Amino acid sequence: MTYLIRVAEEKDIPAVYNFVCLLEETGFNYNDFEIICCRNITNRDYYYLVAQSAAGAVIGFISCHTQSLLHHCGKVAEIQELFVDDKYRKLGIGIALLKALEEKLLANNCFLFEVTAQNKREQTHRFYKDNGFIQSHQKFTKQLS
User: Fold this and answer.
1) Rounded to whole angstroms, how far apart are CA atoms 43 and 40?
2) What is the pLDDT of residues 101-110, one digit of tens each?
């Protein structure tokens, strides 16, 4: 299968919205999502990449933010979302998105790459381990409402 990995653009927001809603098993307010996505696309500390099929359809997405952290004394990148359309899984697209992102991060002086995944996503855990990530932490969350 032929596909292209490229930087996400505003025209990709509807596809990205669908992917993130599927990933999070919810429906977000589209207008709010669009505002956040537009802001993040232009933020140089965020990386949004899409996989595009030869026919022009967006078939995958990865997002990442970077920050300079005191407890690492350097620039750290954390994947926020990675999603490949069901019809295109097991074709190496997720790996291609991950590698393209990693190249961009290395070029921008990031020295650590992090990701968290819900406990129930065992296949996702295997994917990251198979691609060089080590489980080194546990994440705790608290809903603020």
Assistant:
1) 5
2) 999 999 999 9
